[in-house]
Amino acid sequence: MNTFEILLPHYDFSERHAIVIRGQASDILDAVAAFRVQNDPLVRQIIRLRELPGRLMKRLSAPPLDLEDFTLLARTGHALAYGLVGAFWHADYGLRSIPSPDAFMAVREGDLCKLVLGFTVAPISESRCRLITGTRVLCLSDKARQRFTPYWFLIRPVSGLLRRRMLWNIRRVVEQQS
Q: What is the distance between the alpha carbons of residues 87 and 109, in angstroms, rounded to a whole number?
């Protein structure tokens, strides 16, 4: 059973992207854990644009959303998984504090969504691996699903671009270190 199946076996929305990287699994996962979207100028601008309404309405004052805002749910020798819980269609993402994997698993109701962002490294050869990133979203109520659905279809193409940029940046970092 993979990390996704344990953390979020049922979901309403998902996406998946992959890239081949010259490097070892542990180095790749270390690069994933160290990655900050704010280090990529294009990604930084996209996040700013997404957050602009919340900042203009003074509903969002926190630093821009980044991987460190997610809760680390699991790390194995070949996988990393992060989680968020919120009403992501809100200007401020409607984030809930999730201090631990147990707290993430305990959230089962409300007009919220649970999101798992996972990374899996699959060795291809002695010196190359495939890094796969996947996102799963579970809406915890019909109301959340009704609100999240149009948001998902609006942001999914941009989300895909962000994930691909993330993968490219991680590949660049790992391959420069080799």
A: 12
Over residues 40-87, the pLDDT tens digits come to 999 889 999 998 888 888 887 888 888 889 999 999 999 999 999 999
Residues 6+ apart with CB under 8 A from 129: 20, 21, 23, 24, 25, 28, 121, 122, 123
Residues whose CB is less than 8 angstroms from the CB of residue 123 and which lie 6 or more positions away in sequence, other chains included: 25, 129
As given in the structure block, the two tokens for residue 122 are 């699959």
**Which candidate, 143, 41, 43, 44, places its Cα nearest to that of 89?**
143
The phi, psi pair for 160, rounded to 5°, reads -60, -40
Joined together, the tokens standing for residue 147 give 């609100």
The helix (H) or strand (E) run that includes residue 12 is: none
Distance, CA of 81 to chain centre: 8
Alpha-carbon dihedral 47, 68, 55, 49, rounded to 10 degrees: 0
What is the rounded distance in angstroms from the CA atom of residue 48 to the CA atom of residue 46? 5
* Nearest one of 49, 4, 39, 22 to 130, comparing CA atoms: 22
- DSSP conformational letter for 122: E
Residue 45's identity, in one-letter code, is: Q
Q: What is this structure's pTM?
A: 0.93
The sheet carrying 113-123 orders its strands as: 13-22, 128-139, 113-123, 79-86, 71-75
